[in-house]
Amino acid sequence: MLEERETAARVRVEGLREEVAQLARVLEAAEIELDRRVIAREELVEALAASAAETTSVTGTEVERVASPAPVPGSIVPPWREGLPVPVLAPDYQRILGVLEERQPVDQGPLKAGEITVRLGLETTSAKVEGVCSKARRLGERGWLLLEASGMFSAGQRPVAVPEAGLST
Fold it and tell me: What does DSSP say about strands 153-155 and 145-147: parallel, antiparallel, or unpaired?
């Protein structure tokens, strides 16, 4: 009787392994599709910004401006550069920056993603914390905030190298 149960358990484990392998293939295909769509959108935004920059004439005292669509949830995070205002970011990203800028004094130190999640008034479920962490990491990668070696985040900007518009393929 124990051997029958063991055999049944082995069959179930193998079935679950096959399901996991299938789901991994589906996930990989979905991630590839997502990456393609993100790249396509980024390329389109860059092309539209370049086109808008070419058609905008700037006089001596005017500030150079590039027309850009209003940020919406899910929009890209542009690399930080001097003079780029925070409102170009989607609202969720603006809120994360706001939380970190409130802690500007150095003696308060950087925050973990879980602490940022709490300060945003969100539930501290792993999904919410992971979402905040992902967004904060993206802001750090693009120079909007500082990503500490410990995985913590703090306010501050750093320039990020951006490829020349004419060099992209």
Answer: antiparallel
